[in-house]
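Need tokens for this chain, all 134 residues.
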Amino acid sequence: MLFAFSIFCMVVSFLPLGIRSALEPAVMDSRLQRLEWEVFNSQVKKELRTAEKIMVQNEKLIMILEGQTILYERYGSNIRRRVDYSGHEILLQNIAEVRYEMTENGVEIFVEDQRGDAHSSTVRSFIDLEVVPL
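Here are the structure tokens for all 134 residues:
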């Protein structure tokens, strides 16, 4: 009985360390940033794969989709999405740099956050794109 109680006390003594590290703000921010990137990446893929036209201008990605102009642009330290040049949907926050590059049948996206973490993704379209040069 005393042995079991001593094991229990040892386990309980390590519990606060585990809780503190799990709830540490930097760890939580990192998890949220990773989740935010995955959601952003998923939405871009969904729209880009069905886009009729794709254009890249500076830090902007412009897609024509079912007669609507979908715009992904840097807005301060955020990336926002606009439809027909109106609206304000924040997709990514705390961005230091964003870059879009045209590839064959798609776009390569490079994002660096304010902590210096870099993310990239290549999205290809399922249909033949009309790539509009600027």
